Amino acid sequence: MSNGLPRVLRAAPAGPGIDIAAAEDATRRLLQALGYDTSDEVLDQTPRRVAAAYAQMLTPVDFEFTTFPNEGYDELIVARSIQFHSLCMHHLLPFVGVAHIGYIPDGRIVGLSKLARVVEHFARDLQVQERLTEQIASCLQEKLTPNGVGVVMEAEHMCMTLRGVQKPGTTTVTSSLHGAIRNDPRTRQEFLALVRGDK
Q: What is the pTM of this model?
């Protein structure tokens, strides 16, 4: 890459890692504390399944951040409606939605599938949407050194729709803008119009 940064995006180690056996035991004890009989045949394998599910949702996948030389393109590149899911770090419930990513290339362009990979990489963590949005934008800014990056995320949070205020269909929108997409009003307007799908 032109900026000399590593090409492989790796997960930062999170503490000592995931202890599946301990997660199974904790799930079993939680079910019992909630009044369920974990010796019942229908619940016997639930702790194992829950531990495996959380381990999968919280384990980022390493991937190669493939870039190519830019052959003179200097306009916005936007990928819309990249589906994602993550886990709210306050309630351990999912939030699900779409990410819209745009950038103005400088010396390099990125393989389009890698934009989705970056979203998935950072979504596989205990998250808040605000931090997730900024992590994606900052990663692309660092890896690509483009003239501008914009990330807009829209998600429905189960911690808001299934509990508490219980308002299904409520969507939270966050954004993180860098470079020309933040500082140039016309570029910012164009990016947001492309995200909305304006004709």
A: 0.90
